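Is adenosine-5'-triphosphate placement plausible here? Inputs below.
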Amino acid sequence: MQEKIYSAKEFATSLGISKNHLLKLESENKVPQARRQQRGKIEHRFYLVEDISRYRKILNKPPLIEDRHVQMFFNFKGGTGKSTLSASYAYAVAEMGIKVLAIDLDAQQHMTKCLGVETSKDTKSIFEVLIDNEDINKVITKTKMPTLDIIPGTLKLSVIENRLPTKDMREFLLMAALKKIENEDYKVIVIDSLPSVTMLNKNAIVASDDLIVPVLPDYLSYDGLGLLFSELSRMNDGFTLYSGSRGSFLDNIHIVINQFKTNEVLSKKTKESLEKHYSRYLADTVIPYNAKMAQATAAGKPIFQYDRKCKAAQQIRALVQEILKLPPI
Ligand SMILES: Nc1ncnc2c1ncn2[C@@H]1O[C@H](COP(=O)(O)OP(=O)(O)OP(=O)(O)O)[C@@H](O)[C@H]1O
Ligand SMILES: [Mg+2]
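Reply from A.M.:
I modeled the complex. Tokens:
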């Protein structure tokens, strides 16, 4: 995984200051000297992702996110973009200098693959944590991006449903496991799930602060949302007894239209219906249909490594900013 390199202008924006201000601080030795690389005859300043939090500390700027957010990409319907978007979303957050833990709950390992992370027969997943009481801190794998770690998916997850129902407090196991993560630097935990009402998914719903629901702009996806909301309210009724101060599962749902085609009537009509019936939940940011997304998936790369300037990549960054309420970076 190749790391994002920031120019002085981009880096200054991530700190909320102008480029001139950054250069002035550097000339006054109030911040470290920038990294430099020779291109032709000119030496250019450049900065890396890990510099963002370091510089923010030096400048006494608050971290972009104070409290940890657990965010699950979820939809009962298959193929709506959960894995593609969750991987790109996690990568985009990490590129902003925010420490991210991605968790892949799917035996198909699509999120893991989209992030270009390879697994072996010895790789452990959340299966070992929830079923064999393995320490969650020991199943975290580092990626080449310093601000992005992952608990990868493995084939073993395909049999987790047979084992979870026999456990005590079976819906709360993931929530409890996440509380045992020792590294407090993780500010965002991004979970990719499978398209079903499974006990593992219920664990993730209970553990999450935000549910991000990608939908395709077509009739069946729209129709499927009704089922999703009724299932979540049913779960909510059952959980009110246990959840204490935790709000309703319906409080923080973000429906995200994915694969939107500007020149397609069905796309426009479905968007209008969503705006009418789900306006409270609908994200402003829309992810367009973009062949580059599918090509990036096939290449096992997040979109930001495949074509970071394409419209879909820009919209995923906008989605991060919208959902995490971040300033423009
Ligand atoms: N915005 C987009 N533009 C073009 N293709 C996309 C876009 N988003 C996702 N895709 C493609 O759509 C296909 C399905 O996406 P993905 O696997 O992420 O869906 P999913 O919801 O995770 O599926 P499943 O329910 O099987 O887990 C993939 O081939 C992916 O590359
Ligand atoms: Mg998937």
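Short version: The beta strands are 5-6, 35-39, 42-48, 69-73, 100-104, 141-142, 148-151, 188-192, 210-215, 253-257.
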